[in-house]
Amino acid sequence: MNTPTHAAATEHVKALRGFNRFYTQRIGVLSPYLGGALSLTEVRVLYELAHHPAAEPALTASALAQRLGLDMGYLSRILRRFEARVWLKRKPSPKDARHSLLTLTQAGHKAFAPLQQQSRDEAAALLGTVPPAQQGMVVEAMRTIEQLLAPVAAAQPGVVLRDPRSGDMGWVVQQHGEIYAREYGFTAEFEALVAELVARYIRNYQPEWERCWIAERGGQRVGAVFVVRKSKQVAQLRMLILTPQARGLGLGGQLTDVCIAFARDKGYRKMVLWTNQCLDAARAIYAKRGFVLARSEVHHSFGQTQVGETWELRL
Questions:
Q1: How far apart, in whole angstroms, are the C-alpha atoms of residue 278 and residue 219?
Q2: pLDDT above 70: percentage of residues in the chain
Q3: What is the per-residue pLDDT for 267?
Q4: Could you tell me the pLDDT band of residue 156, with boundaries at 50, 70 and 90?
Q5: CATH: 3.40.630.30, 2.40.50.140, 2.30.22.10, 3.40.50.1440. Which one for 159-314?
Q6: Which of 10, 60, 116, 132 could cysteine-pair with 99, CB 3.0–4.6 Å?
């Protein structure tokens, strides 16, 4: 059971419950699982035992109960049924003889194999109802839900910084448009500006002097940043963006650091950037790395009155 730490709006709770009903009906978990004699919980137990990494110590009943959120008495009855079918074997834990280590027998793996294949087939059939170009959107949305709802203590995949690929530049524009409209009330004028900057970068790209990094986490794009050549001695940091699920990981600082290192390696004498006073988190990142505010000016852009700022770093 998750322990709530934030209030949930009534309409959000209603939307989540509605999605649960929709999705469980789509994947068929309200019927006997996969048309077989096993319950959904029994299949979940089989799945965890079958997929437990061989390099790790075998699971104990208490660890399995905690992982699946099951009552120990209920789990014990399931395990006894598995033993009666010769699907499960136990051996005393060398660390604590009061606990037994659980592993599937060859018969257990054989019993699970058709369930696994049928589950894969049904997942493929469900995704097959979506056009190929949109299947990635479905998977990306599921990853977002998983990352946002996962317990804080859960192991999280590392961040990879890579060169841009086809479609990444459009994603950069989209993220700027969506995030700044939602969080700061910027109009489409801002998205248009970012689109112009991205187009200019693509058309005038100088590989010796300029660079873009796309940040990925668990195969999902979560951030981006650019270094462009302003003059022979001046590099400009542009379009630093993080998705909401990537915040709090230090990624903004990491992206800024690779830009600074790149600029120094190329022999630039100074790095500059332009931002707005309302972007407190970004400004804190820049200040921590030695950028100083060079000048500021009031401007009316993106549907609001803003205070634009130019920051500089001597390299």
A1: 31
A2: 90
A3: 93
A4: very low
A5: 3.40.630.30
A6: 60
Give the global pTM: 0.55
Q: Where are the domains of the chain?
A: 10-129, 159-314
- Provide φ and ψ at 109, rounded to 5°: -65, -40
Q: How many residues does the chain have?
A: 315
| CATH number attached to the domain at 10-129 | 1.10.10.10
Whole-angstrom distance between the N-terminal and C-terminal Cα of the chain? 51
**Average pLDDT value over all residues in the chain:** 86
Query: Tokens 């319950």, residue?
Result: 39
Token reading at 207: 């590989």
> For 115, phi and psi rounded to 5 degrees?
-65, -40
